[in-house]
Write a structure and sequence with these properties.
heterotetramer, A mainly alpha (337), B mainly alpha (333), C alpha/beta (322), D alpha/beta (505), A: 337 residues, mainly alpha, ABC transporter involved in vitamin B12 uptake, BtuC, globular, B: 333 residues, 14 helices, binds adenosine-5'-triphosphate, binds magnesium ion
C-alpha cells in the first residue's frame, strides 16, 4: 500500500497547500479582519452545511451519479418541520426526526427514479428539484390571502443548534462527525468499496455480484439524510424557513466535491477532498468579501482563482504521477520474473 | 412487409401523444398555427444553444458557461449599438463582436480543458462566474436598451410566413449541426471521442483539437442565442441568459443525449426542445399555478424519459419472447 | 389544528448572538473614517443598483466615508453569511434589502446588538431595528388596481404576471392588487402566471395569455421588466395599445414605453432617492447616541409611490429616471 | 471418477434483439471434473456461462444444481450456491487495489470495518501460493492486461467454490503463468472441485479436460468423454470444415532479406519501462516479440506507433525519421492493433461501419464535405469479408459482439487500406482456432505482399507459427534475437526467463 498512500497523501497535501496559500494571500490582503479566530469559525460555519450535504453527494458522484435536487429537498424538509411546529404540539426532537424521515423518503424517491426507472441521474434529479420545490410551495404556510409567509422557528431548544461552543459552531461539530463517519464508511466498509466499484464500471460491478441498483439507491437515500441534517442547521441559524430556502444550493456541494478531486465520471474521490473543497470555496468567498472590491470583480476573481488552482493541481499531479511511475517501474523490476 | 421499429418510434409517440392530450384539453387555444409559432419561438433560443452544445455533450464534456456567456454576448451587442448609435453598421459590428466573444470564450474553455486535462465541469463552472462578473462590470449592473434600429429588433421578432425569425435560425443551426455530426468526418470523430477517447486517439483522431472545436461551436451558438435574446427583449443586462445552461442540458437529455458522451442526435435534441416547449405551453394554457409547475414538469419529464428507457427494454424483451416462442413452436413440431 | 400558542416565541439570545452587547460608540460621520455596508438582495437588478447609486451619491462629498456593496444573490442564506461577515468586520452601519424579513431577523438583531445600526430598504426585518425606508408595495398594488379598473371601464378580464413566488415584497404587491380588484364586480382576474421577473419569460407568458383569452383587457405585471416583455408580446401580436399593461418600479425603460404607448402605466418610486434617504438615516444613526433598545418598533420612512400614466409621464424629469 | 451431476442445464434458449444465440442447449457438469466448453467465436459459450451465473436471464430452459432445480437471478445467488466465475471480459475494478478486487464483497472485517492488513496478507498468501507477479496493494488501473487477468483469476479462486467457471482465463497470459494456472486446476480437481474451462488454445484443452462439450451456432454439436477426444475431430466439429495439422513444436527461421522498413534506434521510455531498444523490421518480414508479462513489449510498440512518447531514441520508417503520433503513423502507412481491445481498440457504441471507417476516412469518397455513406458501407463490407466477422451485419454495435469478433473488427479495419507496417499486440487473444488460422494466413499474405509486420504475443506456439524472426524481451531490454536457425518453444521460454543468459532470479 505504501506507494499509493504516499501518492494520495501527496495529492492531499497539494490541495491543502493550496488552501493554505489562499489563506495566506487573503491574510496579507485582508489583514486581521481575515485572520481573526472569529472569521475562521465563520468560514468553517459557512462550509459546514455544504460539507455535510457534500458527504452524501460525494457518495452519489462516486457511483457516477449526480444529485441536483438537494436545494429543493432542503426546503421541503424545512417546510415540513415548520408545519409541524406551527400546527402541532409535538416536541422539537420529534419534529426533527420527522424532518429527517422526509429527507430519507425524498432521497429514496430519487433513488427509485434513477436506479429503478433508469432515468439518467441528471434529468431525474433535475425533475425532482422541481417536484420538491412545488411540494414545498404546496405545504408552505400562507396568510389569509394565500400569500406565502416565511415561517419562524424560534423556539430556543431549536435555535440553539445555530449557536456555538466557544468559537466552534455546532454545525461545524456536526460536519466533523459527518466527514469522519462518511470517510470511514467509504474506506472501511463493504458498502464504501461497492460505491467505487459501481462508479468505476457498472458491468464489472454486476459481474462481481454487487447489487448495483440497490447500492445506487442507498447512496441517494444517504444524500436525503445529509440534506435533512443540513436543513435543520440552516433553519436553526435563520430561525425561520421560506419556500425559497436552498434555491441554487445544489451546485455548492457538487462544486466542492469536484474541486476536492471527486471525478464526475465516478469511481474516484473521497470525503476529505470534498471537505477541503467546501472549506476552499468558503474561504474564497469570505476572503473576497474583505477585499473591498466591486461585486463584479469578485465574480471574475472567483472564477479565475478556481481555474488557476485546478490548473496548478493538474500540473503538479502530472509531475507526481510521472515520478511515482518511474519509481513504480523500478520497484516492479524485482517482481517481474 | 417492413416491420415498425418500435424503439425508434417511442419519441414520436410521446410527441404526438402530448399534442393530442393538449388538443383535447385546450382545443381552441392549443391547436392554432399561432400557438405553434409561439411554442417554437419560446424555445428557439434553447434550441439554438442545444444544437451547439450537443457537440460538447457528444464528446463527453459539459458546458455550464453558456448561460452567462450568452448574457455577455447580448451585452456586447447592445453596448456597441448603444455606444456607436443605433445604425445598421453598429448592429453588424455588434453581432460580429458578440460572435467573436462566444467563439473565443469557447476556445479558451477547450484549450484549458484539453491542455491541462481538467474536468470540463470545473472550467465552465468557473467561467460562468467570470462572464457574469464581466457583464456586471460592463453594464455597471444597469439595463442597456436597444430599441432601435429595426435591423436589430427584427432578429428576434420579424415574422416570415407567420413564423418568427428565431425559429428559422434554430432550424438552420440544427441543420448545420445535424449535417456536420452525421455526415462529416469531424462529426464521426466526435462520436468516437465521446464513446472511447483512448481508442479514438489510437485510431488517429485529433482528440484535443476536436474537443476544442466542440467548445468553440458551443460558445458560438451561446453567442447567437445571446444576440437573439437581446433582440427579443431589446435589451441586455447581467442576468440575461442565466439558467439557460440547465435548460439546454435538460432538453438534450430528454432528447436522448447521454452526458457520458457518444450517444445522441440532433433530431433528438430538437425533440427534447419541442417537448420542453410543449410542457411549458401546456402549463400556461391550462393555468397551472406557477408554484405547482415544477411538480407537473418534473412528473412529465420523468414519465417521458422513463417511458423511453422502459420502451427500449420492453421492446427487446417482447421481441425475444415472441421469437423464442416461435423457436419453441418449430422445435416441438 | 390549533395554532401553537404555548410556545414562547423568542428571538432573544439564540444561536447567532454573541454574549457581549457592546455599548454604542458615537462617531462623527462627517469627519471620522467610517464604512457603510450595503447588502443587496440581487445586485444585478436595476433597482438594487439604483439604490446603491443613491447611497453613493449621498456620501460622495465626504472622503472619509467608504461604501462597500455585497451581493445577496437572491438568497437569505447568502445574505445571512454576508451579514455575519460585515458584523465581524465592524462596519459602522448596514443598509440591507432583506431577501426574507424573517430569515434575516437574527442577523439584524445581532448587528444592532453589536452597535451597528441597520437600515432596511423596502422590506422590513422581523425584529426592531434602526429604520426602514420603504416604497409601499401593498398600496402600490391598490393604486395600480384602481387605475387599471378606470382604464378598462370597470369590466373585463385581467391577468397577472407574477415574480418568483414566495418573495414577500412582490407577494404584497399582488395582494394589494387582488384585494382592490375584488371591489369591482365587473372585473375578473382570469389567470396569474410567473415569469420569474424576467422580461423574456414574460413574453412567453403573455403569448399564452393572448392565446387563451382573446378578450383580455389588462395585464398587471409585478415588475417593470415583465411588463415590458408583455408589451413586446402584445406588439408582435399586433395588439399594441389594445391591452392595458401595467408594471411596477418605474425604471426608465418602462417610462419610455409608457411614452411610446406600449405600456399603460407603472408605479414609480425614485430608487435613487430611496437609496440616498437610507444613507442619510445611516449617517444620522452613526452620529447619534441612541440605540435600537429604546425603540419599541422600527421607525419607517415611506417613499410615496407615484402613479405614472401617459398623462403624467412627462412630468418625471430625465434626471430622476433610473 | 464419480459420475454424480453437479450442474445440469437443459433446453436453454436465449436470443438478443431477436437473434437467437442459444437454441435448446444442454450442458452438464459432474463433480470433480474439468469440463471444457468449446466452440467458435460467437458460438454462445460466454452467453451460456452468463445464463448459468445469473447475469443474463434465459428465455427458456431449466438449471438444476446438485439434482434440484434452481433459479439463479444474480451472480450473488450463484456465489451462494458455490459457483464462481472468471469472466472473459474481466470484472476487475480499475480504481481499486489488487487485494480489494480479489476480496470484493467478501472483505475480512474487524468490528464491522474492513481489515486491510488482513486482506492484504491474505492476498499476498494467494499470490505466493500461485506465484503470480502481483502485489496486493497495486491499483489495478496500473496493471497491464496480463496482470489484470491474473487478478481476475485470483478473484475467482478466492471463493472456495464447488464449481469454478473459467471463460478464457489464459488469453493474455504467457506460458509461465498459464502453467501455474494449470497446476492450480489439477489441484482443485483432485480436491473434488468441478471446473468449466473455456479456451481457444486447443492444446490446453486437450491436456486438461475430462470431458468436452462443443457448441456450434448456439446448438449442441457434441459431448465427448476424455477417451473420445480426438483433436482433428474436435476442430472439425467446431468449425465444420477440415483443418490441416501443423507441427509447431519447432520452426526454421529466415535470415534477413528485403529492404529495411522500420528501424528503431536506442528507444528509451520516460518511465523506464524499456531502455535502449534497437531493432529493424524488413519489408515482407514478420518480426515476433516474445517476453514474460510486464517485459515491456506493449510499451515499445505503443511508443513506435506514437501513442506514448518515448524519452529518447529514434524511429525511422523507410529511412525517414518519424516523430510519431497515431494520426501521422496512420498517414504514413502504419497500422496498430492494441492489446486491450475493449479500452483501446474500438468504440463500443458504434457499429462496425463506423469503427472501420474511423481510420479510413482518407480513402472514403466524399461529395463536398459529406461522407459517401454507401462507400463507407462498402468499405466495412470489405473488412467483414476479409476477416469473416460474424454476424456479418455491418450495422451491429461492436460492443455487443462476441470477444473474438470484436478483435476481428479491430484488425479488419487495417486490412482495407494499403499498409507499410502492421503492428499487432496479442492479435489472437480470445480468437477461435478457425479464425486464428485465418489471421495467421492474413499475416502471411500481408508479408508476402511486402508489408512489414510486428507481432507481440504471449502465446509461444503462435510466435513460432507466424514469425520469420523473433526477439525476446526481459525487464525492459532485448535479451536475445533468434534468426536464421531452428527454434523451439523451450529455447524461447528459456530466453524469456533469462536462464540462457545465465541470469539468476
Ligand atoms: N449483450 C448482447 N447483446 C447482443 N448480442 C449479444 C450480446 N452478447 C452476446 N451477443 C451475441 O451473442 C452471440 C454469442 O456470443 P458469445 O459471447 O456467447 O460468444 P462466445 O462463444 O463466447 O464467443 P468468443 O469465443 O468470441 O468469446 C454473438 O453473436 C454475440 O454477438
Ligand atoms: N497503464 C499502465 N500504467 C502503469 N504501468 C503500466 C501500465 N501498463 C503496463 N504497466 C507496467 O509496465 C510494465 C511493462 O508492461 P507491458 O504491458 O509493456 O508488458 P508486456 O510485455 O506487454 O506484458 P503484458 O502485455 O503481457 O502485460 C509492467 O511492469 C506493467 O506493470
Ligand atoms: Mg466468449
Ligand atoms: Mg503486452
Amino acid at each position: 500500500m505504501k506507494r499509493h498512500i504516499k501518492q494520495s497523501t501527496m495529492r492531499r497535501l497539494i490541495s491543502l497547500a493550496m488552501l493554505l496559500a489562499l489563506i495566506a494571500l487573503f491574510g496579507v490582503l485582508g489583514g486581521m479582519s481575515f485572520l481573526s479566530t472569529g472569521n475562521f469559525s465563520e468560514i468553517f460555519r459557512n462550509a459546514s452545511v455544504v460539507a455535510i450535504v457534500g458527504v452524501g453527494v460525494t457518495y452519489v458522484i462516486i457511483t457516477s451519479g449526480i444529485d441536483l435536487s438537494t436545494g429543493s429537498m432542503m426546503a421541503l424538509v424545512a417546510m415540513t418541520m415548520a408545519n409541524i411546529y406551527a400546527y402541532t404540539l409535538l416536541p422539537i426532537w420529534s419534529m426533527i426526526l420527522i424532518g429527517i424521515a422526509v429527507g430519507l423518503v425524498a432521497g429514496l424517491v430519487n433513488g427509485i427514479i434513477v436506479a429503478k426507472l433508469n432515468v439518467p441521474e441528471f434529468i431525474g434529479t433535475l425533475a425532482t428539484l422541481g417536484i420538491f420545490r412545488a411540494l414545498t410551495y404546496l405545504i408552505a404556510i400562507t396568510d389569509a390571502n394565500g400569500v406565502i409567509q416565511s415561517q419562524p422557528l424560534t423556539v430556543p431548544e431549536y435555535t440553539v443548534l445555530g449557536g456555538s461552543i466557544g468559537a466552534v459552531f455546532y454545525v461545524t461539530v456536526a460536519m466533523a462527525i459527518f466527514v469522519i463517519a462518511g470517510e470511514v464508511v467509504l474506506k472501511y466498509t463493504r458498502f464504501g468499496t461497492n460505491l467505487y466499484a459501481v462508479g468505476a464500471n457498472k458491468k464489472s460491478a454486476t459481474l462481481s455480484g454487487i447489487d448495483v441498483p440497490r447500492t445506487r439507491m442507498i447512496a441517494y437515500v444517504i444524500v436525503g439524510f445529509c440534506v435533512a441534517v443540513g436543513s435543520v442547521f440552516t433553519t436553526a441559524r435563520l430561525q425561520s424557513t421560506t419556500a425559497l430556502l436552498g434555491s441554487g444550493f445544489e451546485f455548492n456541494p457538487i462544486a466542492a466535491a469536484v474541486i476536492g478531486g471527486v471525478s464526475l465520471a465516478g469511481g474516484s474521490g473521497d470525503i476529505i477532498g470534498t471537505l477541503i473543497g467546501s472549506v476552499f470555496m468558503a474561504t474564497l468567498e469570505n476572503g473576497l468579501l474583505k477585499l473591498h472590491m466591486n461585486t463584479a470583480f469578485q465574480y471574475i476573481i472567483k472564477g479565475i482563482v478556481i481555474v488557476a488552482v485546478v490548473i496548478f493541481d493538474s500540473l503538479y499531479r502530472k509531475r507526481m504521477d510521472r515520478i511515482a511511475k518511474e519509481h513504480g517501474a523500478q520497484a516492479e523490476e524485482g517482481v517481474g520474473a | 412487409m417492413k416491420k415498425i421499429d418500435w424503439e425508434k418510434m417511442s419519441k414520436p409517440i410521446i410527441l404526438v401523444g402530448a399534442i393530442i392530450i393538449l388538443s383535447v384539453l385546450r382545443p381552441q387555444s392549443f391547436l392554432t398555427a399561432n400557438n405553434f409559432a409561439n411554442v417554437l419561438w419560446s424555445v428557439s433560443v434553447i434550441g439554438i444553444m442545444t444544437c451547439g452544445t450537443v457537440f460538447v455533450f457528444l464528446a463527453g464534456g459539459i458546458d455550464l458557461s453558456i448561460g452567462t456567456l450568452a448574457g455577455l454576448s447580448a451585452i456586447t451587442v447592445v453596448e456597441i449599438i448603444d455606444k456607436m448609435g443605433a445604425t445598421n453598421a453598429s448592429v453588424i459590428i455588434g453581432i460580429i463582436a458578440a460572435l467573436c466573444v462566444g467563439a473565443f470564450a469557447g476556445m479558451v474553455h477547450g484549450l484549458i480543458i484539453t491542455r491541462f486535462n481538467i474536468p470540463a465541469f470545473l472550467v465552465t463552472f468557473a467561467a460562468q462566474s467570470v462572464y457574469l462578473g464581466l457583464s456586471m462590470v460592463i453594464t455597471n449592473n444597469r439595463i442597456v436598451s436597444a430599441r432601435e434600429p429595426a435591423l436589430f429588433t427584427s432578429i428576434g421578432s420579424m415574422k416570415i410566413l407567420g413564423f418568427p425569425l428565431p425559429i428559422y435560425l434554430m432550424i438552420i443551426i440544427a441543420l448545420i449541426s445535424w449535417f456536420s455530426l452525421s455526415r462529416t468526418t469531424f462529426g464521426r470523430d466526435i462520436y468516437a471521442v465521446g464513446g472511447n477517447p483512448e481508442a479514438s486517439e489510437i485510431s488517429g483522431v485529433h482528440v484535443s483539437k476536436d474537443i476544442v472545436l466542440c467548445y468553440v461551436f458551443s460558445g458560438l451558438t451561446a453567442a447567437i442565442g445571446g444576440i437573439v435574446l437581446a433582440s427579443m427583449t431589446q435589451q441586455g443586462m447581467a442576468s440575461t441568459g442565466s439558467g439557460y445552461e440547465t435548460q439546454v442540458i435538460t432538453a438534450a437529455v430528454i432528447g436522448g443525449v447521454s452526458l457520458l458522451g457518444g450517444v445522441g442526435t440532433v433530431p433528438g435534441c430538437i425533440y427534447g426542445v419541442v417537448i420542453m416547449g410543449l410542457i411549458n405551453n401546456g402549463l400556461n394554457l391550462m393555468s397551472v399555478p406557477s408554484t405547482q409547475s415544477g411538480l407537473v414538469q418534473g412528473v412529465v419529464i420523468i414519465i417521458a424519459v422513463a417511458f423511453d428507457a422502459l420502451q427500449h427494454q420492453d421492446q427487446s424483451r417482447k421481441k425475444v419472447k415472441r421469437i423464442s416462442e416461435q423457436i419453441k413452436g418449430t422445435a416441438s413440431s | 389544528s390549533g395554532e401553537r400558542t404555548e410556545r414562547t416565541d423568542s428571538t432573544a439570545n439564540t444561536g447567532d448572538t454573541p454574549t457581549t452587547t457592546s455599548s454604542k460608540i458615537k462617531k462623527n460621520p462627517y469627519t471620522e473614517d467610517i464604512k457603510i455596508a450595503y447588502v443587496a438582495h440581487d445586485l444585478s437588478t436595476p433597482n438594487n443598483q439604483a439604490w446603491l447609486e443613491g447611497i453613493e451619491r449621498e456620501c460622495a462629498s465626504w472622503s472619509n466615508i467608504v461604501i462597500q456593496s455585497f451581493n445577496g444573490e437572491s438568497s437569505a442564506e447568502t445574505q445571512t453569511q454576508v451579514m455575519a461577515d460585515v458584523i465581524n468586520q465592524e462596519y459602522d452601519a448596514i443598509l440591507l434589502q432583506c431577501s426574507d424579513g424573517t430569515a434575516l431577523a437574527p442577523s439584524v438583531q445581532q448587528a444592532e446588538e453589536a452597535g451597528i445600526p441597520v437600515i432596511t430598504i423596502n422590506l422590513d426585518a422581523a425584529t426592531v431595528h434602526s429604520a426602514l425606508v420603504m416604497a409601499v408595495d401593498y398600496d402600490a398594488g391598490r393604486m395600480a388596481a384602481d387605475k387599471i379598473a378606470d382604464q378598462i371601464g370597470k369590466e373585463g378580464k385581467v391577468a397577472i404576471i407574477q415574480g418568483v413566488p414566495g418573495l414577500t415584497r412582490t407577494d404584497n404587491l399582488e395582494r394589494g392588487f387582488r384585494e382592490t380588484i375584488a371591489n369591482y364586480p365587473g372585473i375578473e382576474i382570469v389567470d396569474a402566471q410567473s415569469a420569474a421577473f424576467e422580461k423574456e419569460q414574460a413574453i412567453t407568458v403573455m403569448n399564452s395569455f393572448l392565446q387563451n383569452y382573446p378578450d383580455l383587457k389588462a395585464v398587471f405585471a409585478i415588475n417593470d421588466a415583465m411588463a415590458e416583455g408583455a408589451a413586446l408580446a402584445a406588439q408582435s401580436a399586433d395588439k399594441k395599445g389594445q391591452i392595458v399593461i401595467w408594471g411596477a418600479d418605474g425604471e426608465k425603460d418602462a417610462l419610455a414605453m409608457i411614452e411610446s404607448g406600449d405600456m399603460a402605466g407603472t408605479i414609480y418610486t425614485n430608487s435613487w432617492d430611496e437609496g440616498s434617504t437610507a444613507a442619510k438615516i445611516a449617517l444620522l444613526m452613526i452620529g447619534s447616541e441612541y440605540s435600537y433598545t429604546v425603540l419599541s418598533e422600527t421607525p419607517q420612512v415611506i417613499m410615496e409611490p407615484i402613479v405614472v400614466t401617459a398623462d403624467n409621464v412627462g412630468s418625471i424629469p430625465e434626471e430622476d429616471r433610473w | 471418477m464419480s459420475k454424480e451431476l453437479l450442474l445440469e442445464a437443459n433446453h436453454i434458449y436465449k436470443s438478443f434483439s431477436g437473434i437467437p444465440v442459444l437454441h435448446d442447449v444442454h450442458f452438464d457438469v459432474r463433480r470433480g471434473e474439468v469440463h471444457a466448453l468449446m466452440g467458435e467465436n460467437g458460438a454462445g459459450k460466454s452467453t451460456l456461462i452468463k445464463i448459468i451465473t445469473g447475469i443474463y436471464t434465459k428465455d427458456a430452459g431449466q438449471i438444476s444444481w446438485e439434482g434440484k432445480p434452481v433459479e439463479i437471478n444474480s451472480y450473488q445467488d450463484c456465489l451462494n450456491l458455490g459457483i464462481s466465475c472468471i469472466y472473459q471480459e474481466l470484472s476487475v475494478i480499475p480504481p481499486l487495489t489488487v487485494a480489494q478486487n480479489v476480496y470484493l464483497r467478501k472483505e475480512p472485517l474487524r468490528a464491522g470495518l474492513i481489515d486491510y492488513n488482513k486482506m492484504n496478507s491474505m492476498t499476498q498468501q494467494l499470490i505466493d501460493l500461485y506465484d503470480f507477479p502481483l502485489k496486493p496493494t497495486t491499483l489495478v488501473e496500473d496493471l497491464g492486461m496480463g496482470q489484470r487477468q491474473l487478478v481476475e483469476i485470483l478473484k475467482g479462486l478466492s471463493n472456495d467454490s464447488k464449481l469454478l467457471i473459467m471463460d478464457e482465463p489464459t488469453s493474455s497470459l504467457s506460458g509461465k503463468e498459464a502453467e501455474s494456472l494449470f497446476g492450480i486446476i489439477c489441484k482443485l480437481r483432485d480436491q473434488g472441485v468441478s471446473i468449466i474451462y473455456i479456451s481457444h488454445r486447443l492444446e490446453e484443452v486437450y491436456r486438461l479436460s475430462d470431458r468436452l462439450t462443443i457448441l456450434r451456432d448456439g446448438k449442441n454439436a457434441a459431448v465427448l468423454e476424455k477417451d473420445e477426444i480426438i483433436p482433428k475431430m474436435v476442430i472439425e466439429t467446431m468449425i465444420g470444415k477440415e483443418m490441416e495439422e501443423v507441427d509447431d513444436s519447432s520452426k526454421e527461421l529466415r535470415s534477413d532479406e528485403g529492404p529495411v522498413c522500420l528501424e528503431v534506434k536506442s528507444l528509451t521510455d520516460s518511465a523506464n519501462r524499456f531502455r535502449n531498444i534497437s531493432f529493424q523490421v524488413r519489408h515482407g518480414e514478420i518480426l515476433g516479440i516474445g517476453g514474460l508479462i510486464g517485459a515491456g513489449r506493449t510499451e515499445i510498440v505503443r511508443a513506435i506507433y506514437g501513442v506514448d512518447k518515448a524519452a529518447s531514441g529514434e524511429v525511422l520508417l523507410d529511412d525517414e525519421r518519424l516523430d510519431p503520433n497515431p494520426a501521422l503513423s496512420i498517414s504514413k502507412g502504419i497500422g496498430f492493433v492494441p492489446e486491450d481491445r475493449r479500452k483501446q481498440g474500438f468504440i463500443p457504441l458504434l457499429s462496425t461501419v463506423k469503427n472501420v471507417a474511423l481510420t479510413n476516412y482518407d480513402i472514403i469518397k466524399r461529395t463536398g464535405m459529406a461522407i459517401d455513406e454507401n462507400d463507407e458501407l462498402e468499405l466495412s463490407k470489405k473488412a467483414i469479408e476479409a476477416i469473416d466477422i460474424r454476424p456479418a451485419d455491418p450495422q451491429k454495435e461492436v460492443g455487443t459482439m462476441s470477444g473474438g469478433n470484436q478483435q476481428k473488427v479491430v484488425l479488419g479495419k487495417w486490412l482495407v487500406r494499403g499498409l507499410k507496417l502492421l503492428i499487432v499486440d496479442e492479435p489472437t487473444a480470445g480468437i477461435d482456432v478457425g479464425a486464428k488460422a485465418e489471421i495467421y494466413s492474413i499475416l502471411d499474405q500481408l508479408a508476402s505482399d511486402g508489408v512489414a509486420v510486428i507481432v507481440v504475443s504471449s502465446d509461444l506456439q503462435e510466435l513460432l507459427r507466424v514469425s520469420h524472426r523473433i526477439i525476446v524481451m526481459r525487464k525492459g531490454g532485448i535479451v536475445r534475437e533468434f534468426k536464421d536457425e531452428t527454434v523451439t518453444q523451450a529455447k524461447i521460454l528459456a530466453a524469456m526467463q533469462g536462464v540462457e543468459e545465465g541470469e539468476k532470479r
